[in-house]
Here is the input.
Amino acid sequence: MANILVTGSNGQLGSELKELEKNFSQHNFIFTDIAELDLTKSDVVNSFIIDNNINVCINCAAYTAVDKAEDDHELALLVNAGAVENLAKACKRANARLIHISTDYVFDGTNHMPYVETDSTSPNSFYGFSKLEGEKAVSDNIDDFVIIRTSWLYSSFGNNFVKTMIRLGKERDELGVVVDQIGTPTYAADLAVAIMSSVDTKKTGVYHFSNQGVISWYDFAVSIMDICNLDCKVNAIESKDFPAKANRPFYSVLNKAKISKDFKLEVPYWLDSLKVMIRKL
Ligand SMILES: NC(=O)c1ccc[n+]([C@@H]2O[C@H](COP(=O)([O-])OP(=O)(O)OC[C@H]3O[C@@H](n4cnc5c(N)ncnc54)[C@H](OP(=O)(O)O)[C@@H]3O)[C@@H](O)[C@H]2O)c1
Here is the structure.
């Protein structure tokens, strides 16, 4: 049995881990969010991990407002890097394993082949930069760690692209969605399964996880309208016609070969997972 701390547990991913808890009755889960455990307070983090005899920490906490981060450097760095350093040091002291979540936005998107874990990073947004600093805070401070980079996360919990499209699809006759950003969506429930499969292994290092397949945001939107039978025409537009504060990678498909092999995972196809999520809604 392990005492597993899940931080940032009111978010999309943390909520999916709560759903999985019943499948792992051999473990004792402790779920916290900022109200119970503010990760930016190093002393509090230290004593929480020691007092609760934590063996594994799954860090789902993050500053995830990609555009806002361009103006809010201090808080983005504090949560995505400073808090992660606190956690890594506390886990190291307590001999606990740290499973940390990062992002495809650590890459600049100039690849034409799915990114592998050893590809060089070069974020083109402040959010991506702060998450990369978080990765360094992990690898510099603890040996027993797993970092899982993921992309285009959605869930029946929280706010995300799928829910926004469903809402807009009910309100509008047509809308424009970018067709020149290519990647893969990730159903947070599938990521939660991947995370749990990494808990009991001795493997360490950086891993990539998303669903299987390659699409644009436009394709994603069309599929959402289709599955939900929404009578809303989706128009393909270019990123330059949809200005956002933060730059995003044009291509951020992640290669899942390493995580599939090391954690013996079947990675679900993005469309199958999307249907599962929408059925749940
Ligand atoms: N969402 C995506 O599309 C996406 C894509 C790639 C990677 N990721 C990564 O995947 C992970 C999970 O993302 P998510 O979408 O589940 O995030 P989320 O829904 O935004 O949840 C993050 C949670 O962390 C909490 N939090 C913020 N500051 C905290 C602090 N100081 N101490 C403790 N908790 C704090 C947040 O609380 P508040 O809501 O009160 O701030 C929120 O409940 C993150 O590492 C994210 O960077 C996400």
Remarks:
- The longest strand covers residues 97-103.
- The pocket of NAP is lined by residues 7-8, 10-13, 33-34, 38-40, 60-62, 64, 79, 83, 101, 103, 131, 150-153, 158 (CB under 6 Å).
